[in-house]
Amino acid sequence: MTGMTSPLVLKSWSEAPRQPEMPPQPKPTGWRVVHARHFGSLKPMHRSAVRLAMLALAGLAAPTGAWAQVGPVEMVDQFEATSGKFAGYRRSGAKGICAEGTFVGSESGRSLSLASAFSGNPVPAIVRFSVGGANPGAPDNARSQRNLAMQFDLPDGEVWHFGNISAPIFGAASPEQLFGRLQSLQPDPTTKAPDPAKVKAFLDANPEVLLQGRYFASQPVPASFATVNYWGVHGFGFTNTRGEKTWGKWVFEPVGGTQSLSDEEAKAKGPNFLFNDLRERVRSGPVSFLFNLEVAEPGDQLDRATVPLPAGRRKVTLGVLTINAVAPDGGGSCLNINFDPNRMPKGVEGAADPTLTGRTAPYAISLARRLVEGPKQQ
Ligand code: HEM
Predict the structure, then answer these.
(1) Angle, nearest 10°, between helix axes 72-83 and 175-185?
(2) DSSP letter at 328?
(3) Ligand 1 site, residue 130, Cβ cutoff 6 A
(4) 86 φ/ψ sector (left φ>0, alpha ψ -120 to 50, else beta)
(5) From atom 31 of ligand 1, which residue's Cα is the shortest distance away?
(6) pLDDT digits (tens, 9 = 90+) for 113-169
(7) How many whole angstroms separate alpha carbon 292 and alpha carbon 316?
(8) 36-373: CATH topology
(9) Domain range summary for the chain, segments of one domain joined by +
(10) What is the pLDDT of residues 254-272, one digit of tens each?
């Protein structure tokens, strides 16, 4: 494989932070499901949003490393060629719903990072839950990927974006490997199915792309967007006010624990139950996630999204995210955002993982395309 950076392996770690503790819960808002008018049409904003996406792209440096091999436009074109083009929808994570929440950072978060997200003051969060893949008709009751994307709106205009998935690993170790996998799965125009010989040849040379699918196949269907873990998958570094750095990988874990469905229960739920389930759960009680950091140890690999941290790493709770409201329909403040996980606040940084740094440009292109087409997510 070309374009891979050499593995980043942790050499040392900061002194042990204090034990995780639960930060104070945000004040109840008194309303849990927002009215349609709050999530009204954003059409007048589309033009300026497209302009913003274009500006973001214009500001990108010339492609280096991975992007020297596969351009972001080529990548998004390949998503469409392999999975189909669904006008207006995200080219990945197409079927989704907007929500709003509040994040409250913990004392442990403050001890690890100077980021204002951990101040302990409630931080407003724009949240999006989605089902993996480019198909907006993807069934909710399959053993497949669920996503949790977020924007934390921090003081002084700082923004923190997240795009987390319900597996501890991604399906490729580099943009080129993802591109190659997608190419191998592109349906043949005559048979309308991928060419088995191409699929096999790619898998023989890149066996790690099967790991994520095996993980999903081994897991039962989640009972709800609110009852599954969401991993950041990449390595992230946290720097505190003393300049000490702690590396790890994060996971958002439901406060009430994970819940899943038996195969019979999943079948009975049908292909479209997740959105109403989330609305009902948020209406009837708190839906919260612990923002946990699994702290890396010397020797752990942090720049490969196909390699999870070894089991049993010390976990630190950085804060609690509480979902306060869910959109009544396919609109909402998340619709026109591309959640680019390279947007991090001061005090947080990403590892040199090509599947992290390689996300910015194709996300902006997908956003620009869907805004021009008329954005949709349901
Ligand atoms: C170079 C590698 C990758 C490429 C080319 C890629 C491509 C994309 C694209 C084009 C979108 C749609 C963006 C939009 O329209 O706003 C997307 C969404 C998403 N991707 Fe990736 N992705 C990559 C790596 C990853 C990784 C490693 C993860 C795992 C954490 C991930 C998780 C997600 C999630 C959660 C969404 C949906 C976000 C939302 O709700 O807006 N992606 N990806």
Answers:
(1) 30
(2) S
(3) yes
(4) beta
(5) 163
(6) 999 999 999 999 999 999 999 999 999 999 999 999 999 999 999 999 999 999 999
(7) 5
(8) Catalase HpII,  Chain A, domain 1 (2.40.180)
(9) 36-373
(10) 999 999 999 999 999 999 9
